[in-house]
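Hi P.,

Sorry for the delay on this. The queue was packed all week, but I finally got your sequence through. Input first:
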Amino acid sequence: MTAAASTVLTARALLLDMDGTLVNSDAVVERIWRRWAAEHGLDGDEVMKVVHGRQGHASMALLLPGRPVEQNLADNARLLAEETADMDGVVAVPGAPEFLASLRGLPHALVTSADVPLSTARMAAAGLSLPEVRITAESVGASKPDPEGFLKGAAELGVAPADCVVFEDSGAGIAAGKAAGMRVVGIGARAGVHGPDVTVPDLTQVRVEALGDGGMRLHVG
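Then the structure:
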């Protein structure tokens, strides 16, 4: 459903995607992946429909079926290095600084398909503080839409999946959150078509209220 009026959710922990959710890195992602698409004779628009939310090698496996895994991993390492060196146009999603500030002292984690160098660089470029708990590409054996990352985030915070709310923008990420048994708040235009529980344009539309029992109430919309 889409929020017309404010939707209220209660949670004991929040699990936050990075790209498209906290950080707008679309300009870099478009530059690098369209260049990769051209190198492989693929349609750039079709490639962009696949790559958001996934680790690079997982996107490549879908786009170039039959290509050896080793080639995808090598290509992915090259693209990650290019992305980490390119911060032109990387900015915070509206409301992200205030949203993260409101989570101080409350259980939350970053769950991203980026690796440690890329996530550290992008959060810094956007002027955002890194959550203490971070699940990155190095932390998991399977990329979103597999739920592993979100389940690991919940486990590290010591919170049951059903008591977690995921913030995501991509189809792969929303599917991962749902597969983990969590409720999902969709952020931005990309999210709405993938069936999150509620969708808002950006994080200015989310207010977090701490409850006395250690939980929190989210006002979304």
